[in-house]
Amino acid sequence: MKESSFIIRMLENTREILPNYHDYGYVLDKILQVMQEKTECSLKFYLDSEGQEEIWTVLQEDIDVSRAQLVANIFDYIETGTITYEQNGDQQGFVIKPSLNNAVYYYPDHQVALIKLPIFQNHADYEREFILAENDQALLVFLAYVYERQKEIMKGCVTVFTDTEDGVERTKEWITQQVSREDVLLEEELKNEIYRSIDEFFNESGEFYKTYNIPYKRGILLYGPPGNGKTTLVKSIAGSIDAPIAYWQITEYTSSYSIQEVFSIVAKMAPMVLVIEDIDSMPESARSVFLNALDGATSKEGLFLIGTTNYPERIDPALINRAGRFDRAYEIKTPSLALREKYLFGKKIDRFLRKEDILYLARQTESFSVAQLNELYTSAALQWHYEQSVDLYTLIQNLKAANEKARTREWETDEYSSMGFEM
User: Fold this and answer.
1) Sequence ranges of the domains in the chain
2) What are the beta bridge partners of residue 172?
3) Which mean pLDDT values do the consecutive 10-residue runs of the chain (423 residues) have?
4) Which residue among 54, 222, 389, 399 sits deepest, i.e. has the most Cβ atoms within 10 Å of its Cβ?
């Protein structure tokens, strides 16, 4: 790139002539001086017009493993550390981390510096992000590193996108309890079909799709009543593939902006899995943008899309009536008698119940979801723990009554069970 010639130079003007620019330029000039002294490199400023949050996500991780170095904090009397609460497996608690704001970080292997600079003005304070690199090629190599590093970071955890009033919030949730494929309570034929589709998609970067000239994109829709293992199925997928997985929570704040942002992020991470939870909750105002995003030739390349819903009747027919959006829809039903027996024996409930009692439980819980079976097991275990006996009939009837109240929304209200506050 040809070197630019500048019309106005800060060092040739005083604060009285260019007050706002002078203050702004003065800080950046001091940063460049420090970088020149410590790196002996001549760095240039670049603008990230894509808003790539991945750069800063990777930086936070790289500080922890010393891949990025703190050159200096910028202003005194501004925070240099942040308090966060982290949970990773059995390890959890408060940790103090260096602040990204008000600091200059440097990647010596890439000759790239990252800056989050606080800007102080009369009407508002804000921060601005800067990227410094020795040249264009060094920056392009660094960006390639960022996205490979991001994929590495995303493995072993689930990236969660939540649409909020302030935009897309991104968090990281570690898979603290591995869910094996054997733990997923589905009919074997259905389970095998879903896992075969997943495995072939990520086997050798989709070689099957290239061999048979099939577009490298896939979408499945999981539907059925709540509590029957759709989330467990997703967890088992996350723990059994060597690819990033992201979870997108649709809310009333989902908009054309958040849709474009999420698809822009996952396109750079592909091949990967994107789970869209409660897809029926997509606001009407955003549906056309969402459909267009699904139809985009490049936005879904390398993307395995999983949509979930408890209310298939609310799904926009356009989602599943056109090829290239959701290719298959799978109903996740309440477990059959054989699956209920498998679940109860799998929980080792025979430690305190006889086999005939377990078979009785399985027969009497015909309409129970997996979540309700789990609650039944927990209640039975608690009763056995404290009383050394289990009243199966009463437990089943109480759960059936609670389920019926939840279904019909017939809640008792009296002075002891009122929900709310008396004025």
Assistant:
1) 10-153, 157-331, 337-407
2) 159
3) 66 77 85 89 84 86 92 91 77 87 94 91 82 94 92 81 89 74 86 89 81 87 85 81 88 91 86 89 89 72 88 76 76 91 91 92 90 91 93 89 69 44 37
4) 222
